[in-house]
Amino acid sequence: LSGGLGAGFFFLPQRQANDIEGQFTPLGGPAKSERRFAREHFPTRDSERFSGQRLLTEGAFASLIAVSASGDNILTAGAFAELLRLDRAVQSLAVPGGDPGAQLSYPDLCVRNNGSCSSPNPLLAAVQGEPARLETLLPQLTYPVFQSSLFMGTFLGGVQLARGAGASRVQAAKALRLVYYLREDEAADRERSLLWLENFLKGIPAELEMAYFTSISRQEEFEGNIKKVIPLFSITYFITITFSITSCLRFDCVRNKVWVAAFGVLSSGLAVLSSFGLLLFCGVPFVVTVANAPFLILGVGVDDMFIMISSWQQTNPKNKVEKRMAETYAEAAVSITITTLTDVLAFYIGIMTSFQS
């Protein structure tokens, strides 16, 4: 029976649900209904006229922060030549497209304004691929608003303003931020944008020493921590199982309970196999926080096993096995029933909360 139900683990990859917002925010939270209301009245059009200020979520993006090698000023022709090289490297990253053999790069997936890709930084767009243009641009560069409409607070860092009459003119800046937004209008756009961001995380950090962040970085780090923790759980399983079996070992072959302990641990393992497999067959999502459940089940099972062995050892060895078993269950059944009921109640309280995780 456990082997048959355990076949449900075949569905584990497609049942995993580790979305941070979906799992760790309340299902009926007012913020979600308010966001739906705002989306109905202030919709965004990533493929027509994109505006980062109208986004009601973080959006799908990759962000880079560049700092001058000297740490003084990044608004130089040499620094902008490097920034343009970096921009070309990012935009050339490609992922498989819908057609066989097709490749989609950033210009195919980017959000658009008036038919062209939204620029990752207004200054990069202003120099038009020629770093020498920066010298003529700097006398006109004002902060925090540039060209009467562009807010530069999110694109320049460590800004030094010129003294005197032109107090809003930028003299130097220590850091510059590039933001690459991707389309999310359709499900296909979201899927391809996600692939591009995953490719970005694999490709760009290996090539360049940059401070980077994407809209999926938090999720990637969350899942990365999971992969580091699960092997530690395996060690705890091994220690618990070893302790459970060896603590029941006796040199007297008659009083030795090592096989009782071994089968007690085995029954907990079969319980994990059966219960998880059945739930996966039923289509229940697998949340990563449930990965510690086998350890809890093992703890409950081993606890009940120790109660039964303790009750058995307190009986009179001269009595018949039937009578000793009756006395053992009479003593142990109440404790096991109460602990089982409290565990079931605790788990059902967890199920009833509005947090899926």
From TrEMBL:
Transmembrane segments: 229-251, 258-280, 286-309, 329-351
Localization in the cell: Membrane
Keywords carried by this UniProt record: Glycoprotein, Membrane, Transmembrane, Transmembrane helix
Signal peptide (UniProt feature, chain positions): none
The protein, known as: SSD domain-containing protein
InterPro entries: Patched_domain-protein (IPR051697), PTHD_SSD (IPR003392), SSD (IPR000731)
Residue span, SSD domain: 229-357
Matching SUPFAM superfamilies: Multidrug efflux transporter AcrB transmembrane domain
Principal localisation: membrane
Keyword Ribosomal protein: no
Any coiled-coil regions, as ranges: none
The family this protein is said to belong to: Belongs to the patched family.
Protein species of origin: Chelydra serpentina
GO CC term (a single one): membrane
Membrane topology value: Multi-pass membrane protein
Pfam families listed in its UniProt record: Patched
Keyword Calcium: no
